[in-house]
Amino acid sequence: MTGAVYQPGRRELADRLKSLREDAEISGNQLARRLSWVQSKVSKIETGKQLPTEDDIRRWVGLVGGGDRLPELLFMLERARLA
Fold first, then answer.
1. pTM
2. 21 with 60: CB under 8 angstroms?
3. Angle, nearest 10°, between helix axes 70-82 and 8-23?
4. Among 80, 76, 73, 55, which residue's Cα sits nearest to residue 4?
5. Is the pLDDT of residue 2 over 50?
6. How far apart are the first and last CA of the chain?
7. Coil, helix or strand at residue 34
8. Which of 7, 16, 24, 68 could connect to 64 by a Cys-Cys bridge, CB 3.0–4.6 Å?
């Protein structure tokens, strides 16, 4: 199976974003509420079903912390887009 969920770059980015959220001890529901998103958007990003935008990543990191990882996350996004 070669669906989007199985693309390594996308999976790695999803895992990294989820890890940052969990490290900040913020639930997916809390993150969604604070970003004015529906919870399913957080879920889809964290499972790799939806690729976040650059703005999504900037807002995510701005809320949960890890700003020093922003360049790496944006690079991972670019790699996932090319896969």
1. 0.89
2. yes
3. 150
4. 80
5. no
6. 15
7. helix
8. 24
